[in-house]
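for the record, two folds in this file. i put them one after another cuz i was lazy. first one right below, seq on top, structure tokens after. the second one comes after a little note so u can tell where it starts
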Amino acid sequence: MGFRACVLTVSTKGARGERADESGEKVSEELARVPCEIVARAVVSDEVEDIQRQIREWRQATDPDLIV
């Protein structure tokens, strides 16, 4: 397989479960068309701390080549 990717959607409503993660799904579908393994997906609020925390967790746990 090609590279390892994580897909992060930043959406406060999505993080609260009030909105479906359509954009994350679409990005994952497009990445699957190239040699790519989606190793993680998440939806977080638009708070900088939440975004940073998720990226740090992924870097330690999954060692991705790409975070989108």
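(here's the note) second protein begins now
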Amino acid sequence: MKTGHKQNNNLVPAFSTMIAQALGSSLTITTESFAEMFAEDGVMEFPFAPPSIPDVLKGRSAIANHLKWLPELLTIDSFSEPQVYRSEDGKTVILEFDCIGKATATGKPYNQRYVSVITMHNGRIQRYRDYWNPLVALSIMDNDTVTATSDTKRESTHA
């Protein structure tokens, strides 16, 4: 396991804590919910998402619905401490971090690198662009998982 990783087997709360700490005073609400950090009309984008995974989620409820199936897909052992970069105007935060985990269905290792570009507005996330390697994600999935995420893509891309 890499040095500097925080261990936690609960994906969404561990991720939420890491994001809230990285955003610091840019985030003006206190919550343990990643979805609640978004503006009501916030957008989450996955520019490199493969066809079976949503590429855009519009609205806080669509983001929350998408996040519901992630713990069934992955068990995350740790996140690295993120490298944090802030724009001069404070409206954009860029994070670089890694996670180590495994696929729930296949047991295959999920070791992923992320770059997240976060745009803030009125103390909440307005836009979250999540850059990651789709080949890593596809390599851990079985056919049932790909089918389920394809169904989720059709259902969750819009609020």
